[in-house]
């Protein structure tokens, strides 16, 4: 099983209190070390799925003391090995760990912007050259999945500030990708019959299901700390390619096709976020305090309704766009027929 080492720093006079608390908890092992300035540090080895509950109990009991601090560390291995399995309902890492990972992944810095620029260039040339392999490479390095997970996570917790940061990172990434792809489109004269471009100019209903299922898989991988699973999700969830496709089509004058490509992007975006919110709820992610939970619940309900309304609107838009494309194709075929006559 996956383990965490929780280090709790306390004043010496609190050591009996924490020993009493730990004696009632399910931990693999714990020990203490004396440190300077009348402080004591307790090192607690615990199942990763139980770490959040233990951190919450320690925080409730000792957080009023300004000398109190908790540090959570991943444990790669320990000897002797622990073979006990957790009986907890939700298999995931603690909320503080999730929060720190999310906050660090949505920082808008030169690395984030550089990755957006590089992935956009790669995706544009992949579409131009009709190369699925190149496009997959762009999907893997594009940092657009993290902001969406941040928005879903913040929605469940009712954390408005984190939600704003996630939305801002996503919007900045999308604006850079769209403007850059439009600029590249003036130099790359694309063929709309190209398979990689043509497959992204219309949304099919299975695309919604794929995005929703991928959103669930991505959120599960994130909450359980299995980051390698996110690579497959980045490939499955097509956020960047349809956005880049939109920019290229606009620059080349294919506005109707660009609309279809942008609808695909929006469909993936909405399905991903709805799946993320529902999966975080299933995984038991919620605020620690009951009054925060009440506020977060109201925010969650509004967000879920919003995503569902957006998906319904997109379904109707997809239907309308398909009818327009069919009419356009019939018109073109009839013109070709009369020209041949």
TrEMBL record:
Q: Which Pfam families would you find in this protein's record?
A: DUF389
Q: Keyword annotations for this protein?
A: Membrane, Transmembrane, Transmembrane helix
Membrane-spanning intervals of the chain: 108-128, 134-157, 169-190, 202-222, 229-250, 262-282, 303-320
The record ties this protein, via InterPro entries, to: DUF389 (IPR005240)
Q: According to the lineage, what is the superkingdom? A: Bacteria
Q: Which PANTHER family match?
A: AT15442P-RELATED
Q: What's the protein here called?
A: TIGR00341 family protein
> What is the native source organism of this protein?
Lebetimonas natsushimae
């Amino acid at each position: 099983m996956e383990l965490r080492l929780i280090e709790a720093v306390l004043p010496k006079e609190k050591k009996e209190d924490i020993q009493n608390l730990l004696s009632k908890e399910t931990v693999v092992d714990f020990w203490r070390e004396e440190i300077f300035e009348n402080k004591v540090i307790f090192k607690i080895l615990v199942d990763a799925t139980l770490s959040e509950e233990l951190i919450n109990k320690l925080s409730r009991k000792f957080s009023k003391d300004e000398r109190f601090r908790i540090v959570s560390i991943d444990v790669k291995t320990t000897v002797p090995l622990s073979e006990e399995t957790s009986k907890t309902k939700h298999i995931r890492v603690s909320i503080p760990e999730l929060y720190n990972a999310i906050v660090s992944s949505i920082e808008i810095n030169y690395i984030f912007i550089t990755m957006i620029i590089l992935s956009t260039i790669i995706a544009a040339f992949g579409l131009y050259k009709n190369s699925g392999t190149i496009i997959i490479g762009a999907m893997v390095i594009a940092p657009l999945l993290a902001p969406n997970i941040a928005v879903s996570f913040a929605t469940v917790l009712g954390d408005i500030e984190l939600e704003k940061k996630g939305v801002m990172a996503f919007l900045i990434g999308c604006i850079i990708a769209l403007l850059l792809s439009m600029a590249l489109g003036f130099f790359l004269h694309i063929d709309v019959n190209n398979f990689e471009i043509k497959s992204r100019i219309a949304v099919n209903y299975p695309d919604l299901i794929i995005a929703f299922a991928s959103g669930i898989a991505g959120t599960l991988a994130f909450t359980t700390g299995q980051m390698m699973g996110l690579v497959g999700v980045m490939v499955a969830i097509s956020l960047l390619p349809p956005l880049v496709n939109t920019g290229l089509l606009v620059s080349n004058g294919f506005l109707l096709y660009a609309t279809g490509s942008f609808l695909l992007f929006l469909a993936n975006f909405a399905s991903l976020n709805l799946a993320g919110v529902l999966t975080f709820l299933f995984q038991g992610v919620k605020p620690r305090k009951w009054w925060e939970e009440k506020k977060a619940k109201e925010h969650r309900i509004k967000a879920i309704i919003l995503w569902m309304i957006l998906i319904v609107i997109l379904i109707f838009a997809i239907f309308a766009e398909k009818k327009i494309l069919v009419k356009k194709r019939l018109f073109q075929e009839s013109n070709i027929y009369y020209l041949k006559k």
